[in-house]
Amino acid sequence: MPCFWSFKKSLYLLFILLSIYLQACSFPIRTGYDRNTGDYKKLHTSSSNTKKKQVNTQDTQGSNTNPGNLTKEEILREDPSKTQTLVKNSPKTPPPPSKKSFESITKSWIGTRYKLGGSTKNGADCSGFVMQIYKEKLQISLPHNAAAMFKMGQSISVKQLQEGDLVFFGNAWGINHVGIYLSNSRFIHASSSKGVIITPMNDSYWKPKYKGARRYTK
Question: Is residue 210 assigned to a domain?
Fold first, then answer.
């Protein structure tokens, strides 16, 4: 009787081992096998190969851009087709000062409506208008504030006024308006009531408010 049970246990153990073996054979666990789909996934490129490709790409890009840190002249001598690439990557240079007169440049601004804080032809205040004209004509950056402009540059008397000098107006509390002097004792400015206009220096409204002039060029 004990032998019979021992034999039975042996058969039962053998059956379990055989089942495990058959199960392992019918569902082999291999790299990339997906039990949900019952098929093998496509092998992905190994991380080492990916890194190599990235390194190669960087090396290639570097060599295409500037192999050996060559100068622009040397690169163009070796490959003239890279002219557009070099020009595209070159820093932008500001346009040269305009050779037009102040009156010519400001003429297209006449009639521009007054807009507090504005500095375009869609609307400008006095200092915003002056700021844009000086940037276009002389490549000089001035603050968007008449009182701050008055503290800069060289003080000029009325007799010394030349086209392009800035003329300032105000009251007992300080400077509150600025314009650009033109020829024949006139100045152009952005008036709060009429927009950009040309006004005589001896105008009955502006003459009593005149505070001085400044020149920002040698």
Answer: yes
Q: For residue 97, give the nearest of 149, 145, 150, 133 by alpha carbon.
A: 133
- The Cα–Cα gap between 170 and 177 comes to 6
Catalytic site residue 3?
A: no
**C-alpha torsion sign, points 10, 16, 18, 20:** negative
Q: Does residue 61 have a pLDDT over 70?
A: no
Q: Tell me the pLDDT tens digit for each residue of 129-166.
A: 999 999 999 999 999 999 999 999 999 999 999 999 99
Considering its fold, how many domains does the chain have in total?
A: 1
- Confidence (pTM): 0.57
- Determine whether 177 is an active site residue: yes
For residue 120, is it within any domain? Answer: yes
Q: From the candidates 3, 25, 144, 177, which is the catalytic residue?
A: 177
CATH number for position 108: 3.90.1720.10
Segments forming the whole domain that contains residue 175: 102-215
Could you say which of 25, 44, 144, 189 is catalytic? 189
In a domain? residue 211: yes
Q: Looking at 3, 25, 44, 126, which residue is catalytic?
A: 126
For the question of residue 44 being annotated catalytic, the response is: no
